[in-house]
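Why this split exists: single-chain examples teach little about how molecules sit against one another. For that reason, every record in the complexes split bundles all components of an assembly together and asks for one structure covering all of them. Below is a record exactly as it appears in the raw files.
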Amino acid sequence: MPDFLTAYLQSNVTPGEAGSAFWALIYVLIVFAGISVAVMAMNWLERKALAHFQIRLGPMRVGPHGLLQPIADAIKLLTKEDIVPSAADKFVFWLAPLIILCASFTTYIVVPFGRAHAITDLNIGILFMLGVSSLSVLGVVMAGWASNSHYPLLGALRSSAQMVSYEIAMGLAVVSAVLMTSLNPSGTGTLSMIGIVQAQEAQQTWFVFKFFPLGFIALGVFAIAMVAETNRAPFDLPEAESELTAGFHTEYSGLRWSLFMLGEYAAMIAVSSIAVTLWLGGWLRPFPHWLAGQSWDLVFSLFPGLLFLGLAAIAFVGVGRMPKHPYFKIQTAGLAGFGAVLGLIGVVLFIPPVRDRVQDIFWFIAKVAVFMYLYIWYRATFPRYRFDQLMKVGWKVLLPVALGVLLLTAVAGILF
Amino acid sequence: MPQNYIPIFIFLAVVGILIPLTLLAAKLVRPENPSRTKLMPYECGIDPVDNARGRYTVRYYIVAILFVVFDVETIFLFPWAVRYKALGVFGLVEMLVFLLILIVGYIWIWKKGALEWV
């Protein structure tokens, strides 16, 4: 392996800190590919999980258990006709999905997947993230306005009102977490995403457990607000198909529509990673102080490999349960191959240098995955809110609660 | 740490190359046969009634104005939160005064009914 590769891999800094444009480019490409794959996986998982919630099978035809369904969808969307309504404002219509996509992808610049695994570590990280992610409101309004049709306009108005209302509660909850970072001997906190996680490491607790139940309530406020921010069920008023067809992207089709979907899912992952970073200890493994020591470190570092081996085992169980008809031969072989790849990844993750390098990322993604599953669960469980109820929750419940938590946290920080 | 900001521009460059490439690829493979009815705004199969860009309820403007007020408040809280422990009781009291003014305004808009949506 060339020297500069090993030298970088052994150093413990982000590409931004190292000032290395080459590594920054590699990280950017990895993040792009990773998010796209994660969105595809999420798409499959959501349809599959929702189907099982409703005692259906979900996608089963394209690939074993519908595993290739997202790829088939992508090809379908790519080859679909792109319709731009004659009354639309062409340029704004064209620009809107790009703004949403850029806004949701740009936030990943500061997401800390590990101590050395962020594209860069801005000292205003969390502000940058909140600021950039709220730019997607602009894209929504532009999409609705440019379509020049009733449903998209109403959807865009609703969506923007909802997003700005919940952003306030979200911001106040974030302030209470930032405030906790300053509870150290130097008395100065940080806005950097990596710094926030290190503050939790130094204070030996995740902020969700700090001043219990204050941290917990703040996380709760954020968790509700982030579902509303990303326009997901039960707050999916802008896309309420029973009244507004598809909301602000009714007039979009083909690839442009898929850009909206990509942006939406990327934004879901982005806000989940804010929640994980601020309250759930980011890349820190569970119980770093209670179950401390070399042997526990080793046990926890085996988790990523074991997870992949477990997934491989599930895939092989699936192979065994495939119908024995010759028609299913290719699907069975495909599932076996998929299981073999998962098992191979699992084995690679057991190699010590890889293991040490990867476990940060694993714990971060595992925590984000919990939130992503919650999104699906909410969608299957809760009925949609009415619009006045939605605004009432945002302005009359979440805002006072977030303010109260902030003030109580400040008082608790002085007293203890 | 100015070098920390360089990756943002690298990111923008990657976006500036990747997205046009995708759009171009889609343009090459997709069919293109528009017709007058296909290009009409969607309205459940009937002809659109009038121009969509009409007037809409004033509630949305009120929400936007309230958002600006409270969002600026949140931004003001960030510097205090970062220096919170260092400023101590002095900072807390200062912030309480600032928040009190806003909370009075908040109660006022609540009583005025600006938060009702009917």
